[in-house]
């Protein structure tokens, strides 16, 4: 992997692929939380403990135990600037917790950036697998295999009654968080989104924004994930999420068909106005850009903007974030400078990416 490619390229390689139901589901993710037996959780661990954990877990990769994943890059957080950490969060390769609070943190990254293994985050070990589109079973299969490799080498903190022990009680049990990132503009425009999300929460799932817990659902992007990790098997957790997500996909597609059948002139006007504004604006803040990119993405999948590439929109979703903008231009930018730079970047990519 080219040095620092993970902060210089907006799109992870896996994001360039088209997965099942990718018109609605951007990605599927499974994250597994584990801890080393007999060592305090990272937030309470002394420096010598966290260093020991980091060396032990990095050693699993260094000894070739993860060769099945292909080329790997092992990075200690101390080697990165604050801006590089922010870019990695924007690309969903590390968590905000690892970027902001970790002592002696590190991560292991595959060439395609579809696997990110975080060390000394909220837990000692967090294995994250990402797949394009609606492939939650595939993401779970990969994560489970990686977990098995680590478990052969590491004595996990495990209780016969409660399962895997984690820093946060909500992860105790299986330690699994499975999620799908969904683009639901038609449900928002038709006023159905609150009813759908309320029903989702009643069956034990959580709905968050683009960057997980505490984040706003900008650009009509919603992350749907399991809340229960104790009392259900891994397979039950994955299958429940799969079935509920499948129903949401069906509702979104039905809402899109309704918009096209009953309000085509209005929805086409909305899509083309957003395209026109993004193609010519001199200043664009992140919230407006997210909403207008959402309109364009909807237009692409409704066949209203057939010449716009979905890959271009995926790239802009990441490259217009504050950290990536500043990394790309090699300097810290004031808010207005960022808005001007964001507008310039969007104009350029829409002109060349159609």
From TrEMBL:
GO terms for biological process: phosphocreatine biosynthetic process. It is an enzyme of class 2 (transferase). It comes from the Bacteria. Its EC number is 2.7.14.1. Keywords: Allosteric enzyme, ATP-binding, Kinase, Nucleotide-binding, Transferase. ATP binds at residues 27-31, 92, 126, 177-181, 208-213. One of its GO terms (molecular function) is protein arginine kinase activity. Pfam families: ATP-gua_Ptrans (PF00217). Appears to be allosterically activated by the binding of pArg-containing polypeptides to the pArg-binding pocket localized in the C-terminal domain of McsB. A motif (RDXXRA motif of the pArg binding pocket involved in allosteric regulation) lies at residues 338-343. Residues 24-255 form the Phosphagen kinase C-terminal domain. The keyword Secreted does not apply. GO terms for cellular component: extracellular space. It catalyses: L-arginyl-[protein] + ATP = N(omega)-phospho-L-arginyl-[protein] + ADP + H(+). HAMAP family: Prot_Arg_kinase (MF_00602). Catalyzes the specific phosphorylation of arginine residues in proteins. Belongs to the ATP:guanido phosphotransferase family. This is Protein-arginine kinase. It comes from Cohnella faecalis. The gene is mcsB.
């Amino acid at each position: 992997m080219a040095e620092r490619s993970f902060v210089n390229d907006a799109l992870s390689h896996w994001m360039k692929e088209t997965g099942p139901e990718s018109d609605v589901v951007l990605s599927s993710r499974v994250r597994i939380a584990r801890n080393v037996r007999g060592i305090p959780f990272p937030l309470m661990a002394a420096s010598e403990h966290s260093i020991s954990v980091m060396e032990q877990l990095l050693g699993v990769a260094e000894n070739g135990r993860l060769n099945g994943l292909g080329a790997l890059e092992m990075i200690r957080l101390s080697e990165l600037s604050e801006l590089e950490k922010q870019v990695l969060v924007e690309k969903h390769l590390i968590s905000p917790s690892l970027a902001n609070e970790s002592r002696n943190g590190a991560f292991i990254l595959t060439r395609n950036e579809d696997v990110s293994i975080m060390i000394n985050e909220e837990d000692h070990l967090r294995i994250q697998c990402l797949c394009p589109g609606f492939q939650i079973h595939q993401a779970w299969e990969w994560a489970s295999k990686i977990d098995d490799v680590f478990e052969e080498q590491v004595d996990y903190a495990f209780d016969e009654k409660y399962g895997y022990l984690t820093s946060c009680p909500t992860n105790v049990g299986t330690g699994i968080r499975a999620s799908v990132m969904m683009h639901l503009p038609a449900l928002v425009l038709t006023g159905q989104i609150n009813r759908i999300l309320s029903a989702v929460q009643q069956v034990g799932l959580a709905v968050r924004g683009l960057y997980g817990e505490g984040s706003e659902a900008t650009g009509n992007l919603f992350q749907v994930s399991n809340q229960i990790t104790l009392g259900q098997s891994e397979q039950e957790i994955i299958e429940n999420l799969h079935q509920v997500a499948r129903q949401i996909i069906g509702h979104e597609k039905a809402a899109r068909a309704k918009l096209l059948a009953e309000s085509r002139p209005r929805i086409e006007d909305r899509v083309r106005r957003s395209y026109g504004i993004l193609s010519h604006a001199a200043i664009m803040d992140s919230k407006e850009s997210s909403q207008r990119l959402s309109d364009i993405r909807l237009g692409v999948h409704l066949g209203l903007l057939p010449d716009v590439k979905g890959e271009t929109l995926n790239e802009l979703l990441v490259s217009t974030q504050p950290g990536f903008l500043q990394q790309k231009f090699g300097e810290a930018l004031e808010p207005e400078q960022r808005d001007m730079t964001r507008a310039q970047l969007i104009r350029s990519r829409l002109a060349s990416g159609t």
